[in-house]
Amino acid sequence: MAWQFRLITQLTQRLNVASLTPSRLASLSLAEINVLPLYYGQQPFPLSLFFEVTQLSHPAMILFRDSCSYLDGIGTALSSGTIWVKGEAGAYLGQGLCGGEIVVEGNVGVYAGNGMKAGKIQIYGQVGDYLGAARPGETFGLQGGNIRVAGHAGHSVGERMRRGWIEIGGNVGNYCGVYMVAGNIVVGGKVGKCLGLNMRRGTILLATPPDSLLPTFNASGQHGLLFLKLLDLPAPFSNTQRVHRWTGDLACQGQGEILVLQ
Questions:
Q1: How confident is the model at residue 150 (pLDDT cuts 50, 70, 90)?
Q2: Which residue has the higher pLDDT, 59 or 28?
Q3: Which of 6, 77, 138, 182 has an alpha carbon 20 to 30 Å from 246's alpha carbon atom?
Q4: Looking at 60, 81, 102, which one is the last position of a domain?
Q5: Where residue 230 falls among pLDDT bands split at 50, 70, 90?
Q6: Contact yes or no for 53/4 (Cβ under 8 A)
Q7: Cβ atoms within 10 Å of 253's Cβ, excluding its own
Q8: How many CB atoms lie within 10 A of CB 42?
């Protein structure tokens, strides 16, 4: 069963749509979906107040149309199926994602992919701070899966990341990969300050040399890495296999690496 949700109300507060996933709606009728409670600010209201709902022929899919940056929690705990967002998305996109795929054609707010364990997120716009980072009070950020962003990303990308893949086509803010335990972060643009702070393991691959690196990263020379040819990397990386390598963060006996294209 597939459903289209077209936003018909101009929102002035946050609207939590975490309950709208293919698996949760699979056994519901149109009438039952229209009366589902959604929290708008601190109060629950029926779904029909915000969305015009129509059924689609695609299996296990949800389509948000005319969406905006006030829609929070899209794809929370998604385990299978597809969620497609034609517009913008708010905070906590794909929170706790453990399967399936989320595609967003516009920009996304903070904490996208936090607590994610599996699945895919594709963002064609820009994304806010804490992409693939740890949720407040939790030990690990991204624990698996694949996140790809065509545009820029904010601060603290991959904070406390444990495994998985994050790829940013544009620039990234400060504190990228801080407290990183393992996994891969690929950045096609520039990166900000404190790259890889307290990084223990994992790989950060850069197309552009950073303005500065922490003194606790050790230069390890130039290397020819044939495996780069085997990865599905964006344009800046597709025609090269030689990199400059730094290892660290030595302040925490880190065995991570920062690779910069020559």
A1: very high
A2: 28
A3: 138
A4: 60
A5: low
A6: yes
A7: 8
A8: 7
Q: Rounded to a whole number, what is the largest CA-CA distance in the chain? A: 64
β-bridge partners, 89: 108
Q: According to the model, what pLDDT value does residue 226 have?
A: 66
Given pLDDT bands bounded at 50, 70 and 90, which one contains residue 56?
Answer: confident
- Same structural domain, 113 and 214: yes
pLDDT score of 241 more than 80: no
Q: How far apart are CA 60 and CA 41, in angstroms?
A: 29
Domain count, the chain: 2
Confidence band, pLDDT 50/70/90 cuts, at residue 239: low
Sign of CA dihedral 90, 3, 46, 12: positive
Whether residue 44 contacts residue 23, with contact meaning beta carbons closer than 8 Å, is answered with: no
CB 201 within 8 A of CB 256: yes
State the residue range of the domain holding 253. Answer: 73-261
Condensed to tens digits (0 to 9), the pLDDT of residues 96-138 reads 999 999 999 999 999 999 999 999 999 999 999 999 999 888 8
Domain membership flag for residue 68: no
137, with CB counted inside 10 A (0-12, 13-18, 19+), is exposed
**What pLDDT score was predicted for residue 191?**
97
Q: Is 136 exposed, middle or buried (0-12, 13-18, 19+ CB in 10 A)?
A: exposed
Dump the DSSP string for 161-224: --EEEEEESS-B-SSTTTT--S-EEEESS---SSTTTT--S-EEEESS--S---TTSEEEEEEE
Dihedral sign for Cα 190, 257, 109, 174, please.
Answer: negative
Q: Does residue 183 sit in the same domain as residue 243?
A: yes
